[in-house]
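input
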Amino acid sequence: MEPISTSTKKPRGEDGLGGQETGLRRDEELWYDDGTIVVVAGNVEFWVYKGVLAAHSPVFADMFSLPQPQPTFVSQESQRCPVVSVIDSPEDLRLVLKAILPNKDGRQRRKGQRSSFDEISAYARLGHKYQIDHLVSQAVDYLKDHFTDHFDKWCKRDYVPEGFRTVHAIGVVNIARLTNCDSILPIALAVCCTLDVKHLLRGFKRQDGTREKLCEDDLVRCLRAKETLMQEASAALLKAFSSLLGYVCDNPVCRPGLHKLLNDIAADAGAVADEHPFRDWDNAGYADWFEGSPVCASCKDCLRKVLQAYQVLIWIRLPEILGLKIEGWGLSAADSDSDSDTVW
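output
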């Protein structure tokens, strides 16, 4: 457990004043005048309720029950109750305390309300550390809902939840590792594969200025899978056209139209070499391919179905491509009721 200190007596700073002279400041939102414990994180004091924290967290409950060494400094303003110092960023702790303490304005968080990455990350990491199980479950459920193992659902979604940045997929992978939620890993890692190598290597800055990065093993997975997924995406596109060109259509303009379309697409490297092969062909630029093309509606629909069928085959193999073993992965794709379950 990380270092913690508690005291009911507040020593002043060396200058005998405390308060601003200690470098501490009170949190304006999480400061209850009738609070029973002061929690110090970084240079921020939170005056909150000891009983509420203990009820949510057995770690806090144990912490409060044990004698602790006196803290080296506290502010003069919060001298009416015990103090606990924790080694967490005030930004993370603020998000967790807001989730478990009563809101001053009486508003309740609505079920299904959009969450930021910072909230989900704090709930998972500090919830795990302090054994606040309902916060961990909330974070994991939120991520499982988006980073689903259901092929049809995933194809209609953005790479990350609304309000996240794509690079936050690195943090999602780390949360999956921390909480042993393996079902999130294949898609979260696949999203990481779409990142520029610079962002993949450097990660991103958290609110507290620390950097979130992939562990070495997952970084190697992504670097290796990047190339493989590009090859798989290119092969799927070429196989789909090859299959359809062998299909006999009554419309005489379709075959030459498909040849021209394939040549046009081949000139666009981005359309062929895509690190992420699970695009929604109904919405992701698919219609633009056929703009001004004489190809009939039946052939267009067949091409969509064949492309999606090859996507399903890649989806089923995704854990293997990433060097993972995920029990039950791909079952929803194999049993999908979509019309993309046949490859000509």
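quick obs: Residues 1-21, 337-344 have pLDDT under 50 and may be disordered.
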